[in-house]
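Structure (tokenized):
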């Protein structure tokens, strides 16, 4: 009788032990991850291989893939977004920041592949029937632009009141600008794509050597007055019509996209990258790192993307 009673008492405990492995084992949907907890994840290079594209650039915040008539631009969360041939792909979150690259959910890679122009991705080359519509020709460029992230290497530039180094921040923004321009059919050359120092005179010389249509140098401002604020477009003291047109076009777009940062307008300066340029040239100061509020904005990936988007739009306006 005692043994039977003990066994009866153990039965609820055994039921709990048997059921325990089923709790939290990930069988149900994960509402925090739209692609599911077990969705395969690929780095930028593996994703590009599956799409039949080449990696033009990749960083911890963005990546650009290209092949034939297709250009894919990806941004990581928290405001993740994917552009396929200049068009936003809906519900394209879930991209994570990796070690110098992006980590992309497998299902999202399949959705990107479905949005590509047929005939160019490797996986699509043998899928067309003889009667299919011929593939579209490669995207024709609307211009050639040199993007110059200021400072770099031994020259950190200004340091924000929050500790952000100018050379790092402007490189991130420049990469985003390059990605958006590439997606719009602009041929982009960057004076630097990593943390290295380039002499000031050599930067506009690159633009002259590749016969660029425009040279754009990206910086962040600093001032003794901690209340100084706003973004500025600088041109040479004797600017060409092309320089003025580009400066005004970029500034207009920044006014539309970079609120609440105010515009300080187009100004003249004898900066060496402007004076030494035989190409239409503009230097953009994104804001003041010595202003606490603007330093916080400039350190935000979301605001960096807004600024990059505005600069890219302005450049396209000027080229067209």
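Design, position by position:
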């Amino acid at each position: 009788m005692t043994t039977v009673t003990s066994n009866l008492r153990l039965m609820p405990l055994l039921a709990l032990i048997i059921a325990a492995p089923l709790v939290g084992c990930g069988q149900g949907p994960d509402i925090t991850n739209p692609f599911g907890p077990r969705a395969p994840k690929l780095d930028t290079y593996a994703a590009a291989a599956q799409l039949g594209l080449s990696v033009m650039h990749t960083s911890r915040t963005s990546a650009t893939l290209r092949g034939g008539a297709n250009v894919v631009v990806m941004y990581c969360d928290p405001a993740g977004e994917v552009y396929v041939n200049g068009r936003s792909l809906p519900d394209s979150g879930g991209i994570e920041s990796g070690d110098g690259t992006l980590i992309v959910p497998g299902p999202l890679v399949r959705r990107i592949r479905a949005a590509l122009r047929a005939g160019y991705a490797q996986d699509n080359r043998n899928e067309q029937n003889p009667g299919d519509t011929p593939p579209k020709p490669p995207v024709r460029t609307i211009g050639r632009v040199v993007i110059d992230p200021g400072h770099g290497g031994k020259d950190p530039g200004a340091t924000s009141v929050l500790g952000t180094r100018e050379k790092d921040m402007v490189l991130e923004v420049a990469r985003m600008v390059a990605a958006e321009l590439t997606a719009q059919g602009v041929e982009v050359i960057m004076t630097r794509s990593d943390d290295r120092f380039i002499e000031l005179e050599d930067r506009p010389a690159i633009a002259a050597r590749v016969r660029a249509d425009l040279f754009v140098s990206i910086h962040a401002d600093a001032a003794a007055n901690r209340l100084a604020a706003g973004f500025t477009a600088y041109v040479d003291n004797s600017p060409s019509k092309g320089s003025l047109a580009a400066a005004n076009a970029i500034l207009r777009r920044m006014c539309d996209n970079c609120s609440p940062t105010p515009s300080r307008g187009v100004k003249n300066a004898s900066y060496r990258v402007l004076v030494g340029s035989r190409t239409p040239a503009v230097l953009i100061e994104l804001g003041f790192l010595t202003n606490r509020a603007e330093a916080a904005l400039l350190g935000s990936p979301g605001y960096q993307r807004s600024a990059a988007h505005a600069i890219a739009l302005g450049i396209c306006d000027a080229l067209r």
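Reviewer-requested clarification: The longest strand covers residues 214-221. The chain has a mean pLDDT of 83.
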